[in-house]
Design goal:
Helices cover 39% and strands 19% of the residues. It has 532 residues and is of the alpha/beta class. Among the domains are: 167 residues, Rossmann fold (3-Layer(aba) Sandwich); 155 residues, no CATH class. Strand 4 and strand 5 form a beta hairpin. Helix 10 packs parallel to helix 11 and helix 12 crosses helix 13.
Length: 532
């Protein structure tokens, strides 16, 4: 099990660390936040490979943190002895498996005495002269020459690793890039191969070689007779065709999985993703201790996604640690908000202390757009779409721009209780305002019930009971009936007091678009001024 991930200088991350949950980790964040990078880093430090190729073979300038590189070139101009950028990815492990305990040591950035693996990329001293010549070139680009760098993969005992230890089994599923020319991608082939014992693998290999030999001596034999006729003049030895028996023609490159009677590569992408997840999580525990899943919702219809997540929940166990990236609120809600890791720069937000009741609440309302709540740094919670439009109109009147322009997300609760949403915002320390009708209940009582989730940056504003129980009568009270009729564009015979409750959303839209001056009820004015 991975207890800590520490990353320095790798792509998005300058100085990053996170303590994963031992069973499931749901990784979210804005676009370009580093979700895929985190999974890629874990795979690199566990296997020394990326997409099946050794790290040294894939090493390129874009692996290095862009800010580190810019700072280096700026500092080098002043001091050529400035240390070159480097990359370090460390995985701290907790396992009693002897295979893992052999990797125990203190050769890590935290000097912890524990087992672990690390992948480092540093400048290779064998190329000091070439690197110096590159840096002295006045026409060189500000790009690191990675040809002069080297990736090393070691354990915390500082011993080089040549292969991934069996106890660090890894499965990688990326549902965004399923297809491959060879019929099945590297990660899927690794998953399928893990089901075979060594003797079974050897038996298949022998049978495969025998079938290729038989094809050479039967079908190709007559064709070779024709080729030999007249070819003696071209070469001393006879020319013919034979089935390749080299390692390039191993059975793994020719045998592909199938779904029913259809080859795997011809199945739908959603079906491929589901199958890969199921295969990865049904492997022998020692073959898949860590499972990395990229965006399981990709290419899946709602019902198929439900089935896939059911399978993940059923198959997930203590023997496997899952890391799942997602852009889907449904995935986040369904698998549990308490397993969330929210990325923002080198920092993370966790919800490990979220109440069980709230976790269960969102699981049962898995269609709610919880990601908006989690990702927004400043937000306004309103009861419904009419409140949302009225707040936006009031905000625009005061600041001459809509709240979205200031990075404020106005979210309609659509039946979600304020208590659950505010608990979530409190755990993430979000800047939030909640707007609520009094519905005949004293404002102090409503605010008091939610006081454990409020603070200087989290406030609840409730409509004044003397102006009305809901938003519509409060708008009429502060603007007057005649003015409200003009704002709404009603006929003389239409009464706003009866029209508005029956046309809540339409009325709010007319107020939002009206050219007339609109006075906002006190609680909405307070919410608007909260963001001053």
């Amino acid at each position: 099990m991975i207890t800590k991930v520490v990353i320095h200088g790798y792509r998005k991350f300058r100085h990053f660390s996170v303590d994963p949950d031992p069973t499931m980790n749901i990784i979210i964040g804005d676009n370009e936040a580093g979700k895929s990078t985190l999974l890629e880093a874990i795979a690199l430090a566990l296997s020394g490979r990326i997409d099946g190729r050794w790290a040294n073979d894939e090493l390129n300038p874009y692996w290095f943190n862009a800010r580190d590189v810019r700072d280096y070139f700026a500092a080098y101009a002043q001091n050529p002895k400035t240390p070159t950028p480097s990359i370090s990815i460390e995985l701290y492990l907790d396992s009693n498996d002897p295979d893992v305990q052999r990797m125990r040591g203190i050769h890590n950035s935290l000097r912890n005495d524990c087992p672990g693996t690390k992948l480092e990329v540093v400048r290779n001293p064998d190329y000091d002269e070439e690197f110096a010549a590159y840096m002295a070139d006045p026409n060189r680009p500000n790009v690191l020459p990675t040809e002069y760098f080297e990736a090393t993969w070691k354990d915390f005992n500082d011993i080089p690793l040549r292969r991934r230890p069996t106890a660090l089994g890894l499965s990688v599923i990326d549902s965004r890039t399923i297809r491959s020319k060879s019929g099945v991608d590297y990660h899927t082939r690794e998953i399928l191969s893990s089901f075979l014992e060594p003797k079974e693998r050897a038996a298949i290999s022998v049978a495969h070689r025998k079938s290729r030999y038989e094809m050479t001596t039967s079908v190709l034999n007559s064709l070779n007779d024709k080729i030999r006729e007249g070819s003696e003049a071209l070469h001393d030895a006879p020319i013919g065709l034979t089935m390749d028996q080299s390692a390039r023609a191993s059975w793994e490159s020719g045998v592909v999985p199938q779904v029913g009677e259809v080859p795997f590569v011809m199945a739908g992408q959603g079906q491929q993703a589901s199958i890969k997840v199921a295969l990865a999580m049904k492997r022998r525990a020692e073959s898949a201790r860590t499972v990395l899943i990229e965006e399981p919702e990709t290419n899946l219809a709602y019902s198929r996604l439900q089935k896939l997540l059911n399978r993940v929940e059923v198959l997930a166990g203590e023997s496997q640690q899952l890391f799942i990236t997602t852009h889907s609120s449904f995935v986040l809600n369904r698998l549990g908000l308490n397993k969330l890791i929210c990325l923002h720069g080198d920092a993370t937000s966790r919800l490990t202390d979220l109440g069980d009741g709230t976790v269960s609440y969102f699981k049962h309302l898995s269609g709610y757009d919880t990601l908006r709540l989690v990702l927004a740094s400043r937000l306004v919670l309103v009861e419904g779409p009419s409140d949302e439009m009225i707040f936006k109109r009031g905000y625009f009147d005061k600041y001459r721009k809509y709240p979205e322009s200031d990075g404020i997300d106005v979210i309609s609760m659509n039946g979600i209780t304020f208590k659950r949403a505010l608990e979530l915002c409190a755990r993430l320390d979000r800047d939030v305002v909640a707007l609520q009708d009094n519905d005949g209940t004293p404002a102090a009582e409503i605010i008091g019930e939610l006081s454990e989730y409020t603070s200087e940056i989290r406030q609840i504003y409730v409509g004044v009971s003397t102006l009305g129980k809901t938003l519509e009568p409060q708008l009429i009270q502060v603007n007057g009936v005649e003015k409200m009729r003009k704002i709404l564009g009603l006929r003389a015979q239409d009464n706003p007091e009866t029209w508005m409750p029956n046309h809540k959303t339409e009325g709010a839209l007319r107020i939002l678009q009206s050219q007339e001056t609109v006075v906002m009820p006190p609680y909405i004015q307070q919410a608007i001024e909260h963001f001053a």
